[in-house]
Design a protein that fits this description.
This protein has 453 residues and is of the alpha/beta class. 20% of the residues lie in helices and 29% in strands. The strands form seven sheets. The protein has an eleven-stranded parallel β-sheet, covered by helices on one side. The protein has a nine-stranded parallel β-sheet with strand order 14-17-20-23-26-29-32-35-38, with no helix packed on it. It has a seven-stranded mixed β-sheet with strand order 5-4-1-6-10-7-11.
Length: 453
């Protein structure tokens, strides 16, 4: 049977106090609408639609071709939003999930359970409900003796007895598709806001004595809708806890999970140890038996097995097996380190490749360079890659030694097994097996101080 999901993402989100569309605000490194899309797709839905607003070009651009997009030209309520798909879907068979784009914590597991329950009960509509400790502000679920739903009662219309109920409607529904669109045609805007609301479609089905059910999730926190920055921070905290628990269950050691920040798209191998204060973001992949110490920040990078990262910043780079980085180093985008490489304290590497066992131990800048295997770059050495207009490349051959405080003026090539004397400024190619000294001879004037007096 065909299943489809409709994600409501046309709201302005004025309470976010932001120029950015609400559904694009990030949660653990990913826009909240992307979490919803991922969860729906993981639950196995065949087709995904998103309803976006008329001024939501940024949302449309972000979504691209990942889902089918429909614009709600006028924001006239949730029922009106879903009904924008009437011409396309009204006659289709199957089931349709309607879910809000600001509910990123509703897991694929919960969505799948909701769909399975809907099929088992053969309902025409199934509400995702939850037990709220404090149900204030939510519509209450009133059930019949057989467990089906008798009605949803909004708090303002509830008697004192109904207000004692703690099962609430979360605003997520699954409908028989044709039944949904028939009900939407009967929804009116006869309310204070003059808008068309999706729960009114459910109430129409109640009045028509159609079978309506509610699937109660045991995870009330999953159903949190994000309307402001406070709710965003609460959701971030909940999701980070889930992410960290999943990694620990998969064999990763987090010394202090509450102070370890791992984005949703990060992969980590077993026996890796991560210390508090570490931030792992984007599409980062961490191998097995890696150590990442406090204050390290790694984004969109790959760290292979047995590497050690100490208090360093790594962005868009690759670190090979057994390589040591830091403390206080920075790998900028395009950096690629081989196996058993050493990048020491206060070293910056940008768009450069270092082959196996190369060493840059301290206080150096390596930019737009290729450093051969086992080459040793001394303290304070710099590849001078920028002439004020263009970037140029430096090549250092295998087993070469670059003395302390040397400047390699690119474009320049240092041959294999060559030595650059400390303090040299090298502008010409150095052949293999050579020693280059590029500095003025020392002049010493004895008695200089006394003569000045």
């Amino acid at each position: 049977m065909q299943t489809r999901a409709i994600i409501l993402a046309a709201g302005k989100g004025t309470r976010m106090k932001s120029k950015k569309a609400k559904v694009l605000h990030e949660l653990c490194g990913m826009p909240m609408i992307q979490h919803v899309i991922n969860n729906v797709k993981e639950a196995g839905f065949d087709e995904v639609h998103a309803i976006i607003g008329p001024d939501s070009d940024e949302v449309g651009d972000y979504l691209g071709d990942s889902v089918k997009k429909t614009v709600q030209e006028e924001r006239l309520g949730t029922a009106h939003a879903v009904n924008q798909l009437s011409d396309l879907l009204a006659d289709e068979e199957g089931d349709t999930l309607v879910i809000c784009g600001d509910t990123p914590l509703i897991s694929s597991h919960t969505i799948q359970n909701l769909l399975d329950f809907h099929h088992e009960r053969k309902s025409l509509a199934t509400i995702l409900s939850a037990e709220a400790d404090v149900p204030t502000g939510y519509g209450r679920i009133v059930r019949n003796y057989d467990g089906s739903v008798k009605r949803i009662v909004e708090e303002k219309d509830a008697t004192s007895e109904i207000r004692e109920l703690h099962e609430i409607s979360t605003g997520t529904f699954i409908f028989d598709n044709q039944t949904l669109f028939k009900a939407l045609d009967k929804v009116t805007d006869d309310n204070a806001q003059n808008e068309y609301y999706l729960p009114d479609a459910v109430n129409i089905l109640f009045r028509e004595h159609k079978l309506i059910d509610a699937y109660e999730t045991m995870e009330f926190e999953e159903t949190l809708g994000i309307n402001d920055r406070v709710a965003l921070s609460q959701a971030e905290s909940l999701l980070r806890e889930q992410i960290n628990i999943r990694h620990m269950q998969n064999g990763v050691t987090l010394i202090d999970p509450k102070n370890t920040y791992i984005d949703a798209g990060v992969e980590i191998g077993m026996d890796t140890i991560i210390y508090p204060g570490a931030v792992l973001g984007g599409s980062t992949i961490i191998g097995e038996n890696v150590t990442i110490t406090s204050s390290s920040h790694i984004t969109d990078s790959e760290i292979e097995d047995d590497a050690v990262i100490k208090q360093s910043v790594i962005t868009g780079s690759k670190v090979g097996r057994g390589t040591n980085v830091g403390p206080f180093a920075q790998l900028r985008p395009g950096s690629k380190l081989g196996e058993e490489v050493k990048i020491g304290n206060f070293v910056e590497v940008k768009k450069s490749e270092l082959e196996n066992e190369a060493k840059v131990s301290h206080l150096s800048y390596i930019g737009d360079a290729h450093i051969g295997a086992r080459a040793n770059i001394g303290c304070g050495a710099i590849t001078v890659n920028y002439d004020g207009e263009n970037k140029h490349k430096t090549e250092v051959g295998r087993d070469s030694f670059i003395g302390c405080n040397s400047n390699l003026i690119a474009p320049v090539k240092i041959g294999e097994r060559s030595f650059i004397a400390a303090g040299s400024t090298v502008t010409d190619e150095v052949p293999e097996d050579s020693l280059a000294i590029a500095r003025n001879r020392q002049t010493t004037k004895e008695g200089y101080y006394k003569n000045q007096k």
